[in-house]
Amino acid sequence: MTKYLISFPSAAMVFPDEDLQSVSDAAHAVVKEAKDAGVWVFGGGIDESVPPVMVAGDGTVTEGTYHQTKQIEGGYAVLELPSREAALEWAAKIAVACRCAQEVRAFQYDPDS
After folding, report:
1. 3-state SS track over 57-93
2. Looking at the DSSP assignment, which residues form a beta bridge with residue 42?
3. pLDDT tier at 71 (50, 70, 90 boundaries)?
């Protein structure tokens, strides 16, 4: 089984404010479905009010992040699935719930993780 990252940036979620509760309910329903199916590993949204920091090997902490990852925000789900096709099916369910397209990436296989 392969773990897949299904994600979207915050700005992709565009809907009227009055739809927030229905979007939240729909997203939670997909999470419950994934948990009930036994494919849910982890998921959640990045807390954009907490700024990222970099931690060096010596423990030094500095504000900021890698230039390439400056825009990491939004929502993420990690699912463990038997195929890429299954990942695309789950991504479509999440896309409907969150009202935006989802990016799908596969984690490299690591027998120890």
Report:
1. CCCCEEECCCHHHCCCCCEEEEEEECCHHHHHHHHHH
2. 78
3. confident
CA dist 22 → 26, 30, 46, 65, 108 (Å): 6, 12, 20, 34, 35
pTM, entire model: 0.86
The pLDDT score that the predictor gives to residue 73 is 78
Amino acid residing at 65: T
Q: Terminus-to-terminus CA distance in the chain, angstroms?
A: 12
Residue of 83, 75, 85, 86 whose CA lies nearest to 33 = 86
CA distance 105 to 102: 10
